[in-house]
What does this fold into?
Amino acid sequence: MEDTMQNAGRSKLTVWEAACIVTGYGIGGGVMAIPYLALRNGVVVSLLILVAAYFASLLMHLMVADLSLRAGSGQIIVVFERFLFRGKFKKVLTIAFFGMVTVVMLTTLATYITGAGEIIAVRLNTGPFLSRFVFYAAATSVVVFGLKAVGISEKIAVFVIFVLIAVFAAASFLNIKNPLPLAPGGWKEVLAYFGMAMFSFVAFFSVPQAVEGLGGDVKKIHKALFIGFLNIFIMIFIITLCALLSSTEVTPLAMIGWSAGIGTWAQLAGAVFTLVAMITTYWSISLALADILREQTKLNRIVCWLIATIPTLLLTLLGQGGFMEFVRFAGGLNAILIAVLLVPAFLGANREGPTRLMGRFASPPVLILIALSYILMAIGSAVQL
It folds into this structure.
C-alpha cells in the first residue's frame, strides 16, 4: 500500500473501529459451529478450552502486530520477506508464500459466500447463484471504499450483532428446553472443539489493518486487539450457552436449531444475524487481501479489489462441498501457515531489536506453546466426528 505506515502517529481508525475489524474477521462460520461441538465436550471443559484458545490467539495476534510494526509495512507478506525468508531463494519463497496466502484467503471468502448463499436461498426462495451473487454484491460494495469505510461498517455491524444476541439471549432464558451438558468428551471431541475455537479467533490478516489504521500507536493496538478478541469470546460464550439451553436440536450451524427453539420469529432474525456475521468476515478478509495484492503487485486499488473479490464468487461454482467442509479446509490451512512460519519470523525479528508489543511473553516457552496451539488447531480442523 502506498500510504502504509507512512502516516505513523496519525490514526485513521478509532480503537473501537480497529477492534471491530478484528472482531469481524472471526465471527463468521466458526463461531456458529461451536455450540454443536460444545455439546460433545460439556460446558466446563468447553469453557476451559475457550479461555485457552482466547489467550493463545491474543498472544499470536500481538506477535503479528509487533512484526507488522517493526517491518514498517502493514501487510503480512512483507513481514515474512523481511524477517523469515533468507538467502538466494528469498524471492522465490516470497512469491510462493504470496500464492499460498492468496489461495487460502480466496477459499475462506468463498466459504462465506457459500454459507450466506444457502441462507438467502432458503429465505427468498432464489437459486444458488443468485443468492450468492446478492451476498457478494453487498459485501464487496463496502470494501471498494477502503479501510475507513470498512472500519465504520464493522462498527455498525458489531453493534447490530450484539443487539441481536441480547434479544436472542433474553428469549432463550424464557424458553429453556435442555439441561446444560456436563459430561466431557473424548480426545477427538476436545481436538475438534479446540480447532474450531482457535479458528473463530483467527484474524491475523486483519491485524495489519488495525496497525495501519491506528497509526502504529502501541497502546491503541494493545487495546484494539484485547477488545476485538474479547468481543468474540463474549459472543461465543453467550451463543453457546443459549443454544445449548434452548435449541430444539443443537445443529452444526447453531442458529438453525437455536432459532427454532425460541420461536418462529427468531428464524428470520437468526438468518439476519448469521448473514451480518458472515458479511463482517468477508469485509475484513477481502480488505486484507486487496491490500496485500496492492502491496505485492503495485496495481491500481480498484484492480486489486476486483482480483480479491471476483474469484471468490467463481470458486463457489466449483462444487467444493458444503459450508462446514469449507470452514474446516480454510481453518486447517490458516493453522499450518501460522504455526510453521510466524514464530520463526518473530525470532528473526528479535535478533534485530526488542519487541514493542509482546513484553515478557516473547520468551521461548511461550512462543513454543503458541506454535503448538496452532498445530493442534490444524489437527482439530481435520477431525471428523
Observations:
- The chain has one domain: 15-382.
- The chain has a mean pLDDT of 86.
- The chain has 15 helices and no strands.
- The CA atoms of residues 218 and 357 lie 7 Å apart.
